[in-house]
Amino acid sequence: SRSKFPTLASFPAGLFDHFRLALNGAAAGARLPAVHELLRDGAEDKYYAVESFGKFSHMLKPGLSFAGPDCCGCCVNFRSVTSRVDQLVVSVHTKTKDNVFVTCKVAVQQSVLPEKAVDAMYKLTDVHAQIDSYVADVVRSAVPHMTLDDAFEKKDDVSVAVQQKLTVEMGHYGFQIHKALV
């Protein structure tokens, strides 16, 4: 009677040796080359993009996901971005209307928009540098028109101006601005 399971003789020459060596290497602590990152356990606080041969393929949902076939760890790569709210503190040096130099510290709270996670990963290289530039632009255009006393009194106006500018500009890159505190 014939077995419905494959026999050792039915494997192509050398294939069994490849798996035997891979399994022996795995027992010794080495990584399995043929099974490298086929399944990905995605943390709930990150968005993962799957790249096949360096090109974006698809997004993974949190939990255990199938990323695609991989050969020796060279075909499939992962890129991730956090879904948590991130805070960046920007210091801007500027001069007031009454010739007093001040340092304004602006805390910007931002996160990635779930539907634009791909844009957040691929459109900007340095998110913090971009936010820093927009904040400096708004503060340096608003504070020099105020005296020192006005700057302290109208810090909420500066905060709103920074938040509005960042919401519009960073939305193009897949980021949501929660708050800009001066």
Description:
This protein has 182 residues and is an alpha+beta fold. 32% of the residues lie in helices and 31% in strands. The protein has a three-stranded antiparallel beta sheet with strand order 3-2-5. Strands 6-7-8 form a three-stranded antiparallel beta sheet. The protein is elongated. It starts with 14 loop residues before the first helix and ends with a strand.
Strand order of the largest sheet: 3-2-5
Calculate the mean pLDDT score and round it.
Answer: 78
Overall helicity: 25-40%
**In this structure, how is the largest beta sheet organized?**
3 strands, antiparallel
Number of strands: 8
Residues in β-strands, percent: 25-35%
Structural class: alpha+beta
Question: What Rg do the Cα atoms give?
Answer: 26 Å
Number of helices: 5
**Roughly how many Å apart are the termini?**
81 Å
Shape: elongated
H and E order = HEEEEEEEHHHHE
| Low-confidence sequence ranges | 18-37
